[in-house]
Amino acid sequence: MTTFFNGIDRLKYDPDATGLAFRHYDPDERLMGKRMEDHLRFAVAYWHSFAWPGGDPFGGQTLDRPWFGDTMDHARMKADVAFEMFDILNVPFFCWHDADIRPEGDSFAESQRNFEEIVDIFARKMESSRTRLLWGTANMFSHRRFMAGAATNPDPDVFAWSAASVKLCMDATHRLGGQNYVLWGGREGYETLLNTDLRRERQQAGRFLQMVVDYKHKIGFEGAILVEPKPQEPSKHQYDYDVATVYGFLREFGLEKEVQLNIEQGHAILAGHSFEHELALAASLGILGSIDMNRNDYQSGWDTDQFPNNVPEVALAYYEVLRAGGFTTGGTNFDAKLRRQSLDPVDLIAAHAGAMDVCARGLKAAAAMLEDGSIERMRKERYAGWDRPDARALLERATLEDCHDRVVDSGIDPSPRSGRQEILENIVNRFV
Question: Which of the chain's ends, N or C, has fewer CB atoms near its CB within 10 Å?
């Protein structure tokens, strides 16, 4: 045991509490035939919670943690603190990058030894903890070797290094019973076309992902392979810009049945979309896997990774998740970090507790909207004309000539119909 969270007990559901507690998140509350915990499947992000030092684009470290350092002793302490926090929050899952959990060695072999020792520690801790692994991933963007990308790097040695890193992380994820494996292409993009071969780099990225899928089947990993769309930051253009871009990439390389998406709220906003748009599109394409739940500051132009606190936004996101049938292997990972001035241990607990409550409120509103059915009835009514046999024939077998004859022969003169947007928005507001 460490002393970092001294005086902070395990949080409980208590809607009347004045101190640290869950006021809306009741894991055992049933919604649409399922426990709330099983709907939300919360996960703590190891990197932001335990590895992030408090920096931003204009300033360095503000957080002072006793496990900050580049030794294995620091990494072991970090693991101790992490599992203590998992217990305080009673979360079902956590997520990691390899670089979050072990210090970088002087060689790949040393980094591997460090990594595997921490994975051993995780395995022992998980024997007495209820917290499981939602997903693992490899950090292939922070170190200077990845400054020109990982899979898309012009240097084949970096490609090989990256593939070796993914193998280690997939092995560890499989060993720890992880339910997904994520590829997060933080630098899979370019800064200038003057030194970039777009076709070559896309081919490299496609081959890399094919190798990942092949290895999944070779080792018998039954979880999902997830790609996380990310636009702009830090590269000028990312190859995995948004859901539509990634789906086109998957189709190009024959991977659309093998790979799903982990969609982040902050990345959706940077791509110029709403979170619910990206979720709905992924669901319609059959590739919605998991989500990173955070928010951006809409007055800033970069990914601020703040904990969610906007219930209406969260409700619309979970509405799309529930419409799609809910999570299977995926869940709600808090890819969110404290503000630079939030220095104390209690801030870390309060941030997660508040975010879990916000998500619970959003989920309950989303479930209530679905069960009410008004939105879905109005959606169905809007497209009811397409259910007629003659209308279905337009899509199934009609030609341009058929459409011309239909209009001329019947004297069709379509009249616009209201989209009823304000009425629909009023319905949403009744629940949030």
Answer: N
Q: CA-to-CA distance for 360 and 371, rounded, in angstroms?
A: 16
Other beta carbons less than 10 A from residue 419's beta carbon: 10
DSSP letter string, 353-415: HHHHHHHHHHHHHHHHHHHH-HHHHHHHHHTGGGGSHHHHHHHHT--HHHHHHHHHHHT----
Q: What is the mean pLDDT of the chain?
A: 96
Place of tokens 């998140």: 25
What integer pLDDT is reported at residue 178 of this predicted model? 98
Q: How many residues does the chain have?
A: 432
Using CB atoms within 10 A of its CB, is residue 384 exposed (0-12), middle (13-18) or buried (19+)?
A: exposed
Task: Supply the pLDDT for residue 303.
Answer: 83
Is 228 annotated as a binding-site member?
yes
Residue 365, CA distances (Å) to 38, 119, 258, 284, 358 in order: 16, 39, 32, 22, 11
* 305 carries a ligand binding annotation: yes
413 assigned binding-site residue? no
What pLDDT is stored for residue 89 in this prediction? 98
Segments making up each domain of the chain, as ranges: 30-372, 377-431
44 token code pair:
């703590």
pTM over 0.90: yes
Distance CA 139, CA 15 (A): 39
**Low-confidence spans in the chain with pLDDT less than 70:** none
Position 232 scores a pLDDT of 83
Percent of the chain surpassing pLDDT 90: 95
CATH of domain 30-372: 3.20.20.150
Active site residues: 97, 100
- Residue 292 marked ligand-binding: yes
Instruction: Tell me whether residue 70 is annotated as binding.
Output: no
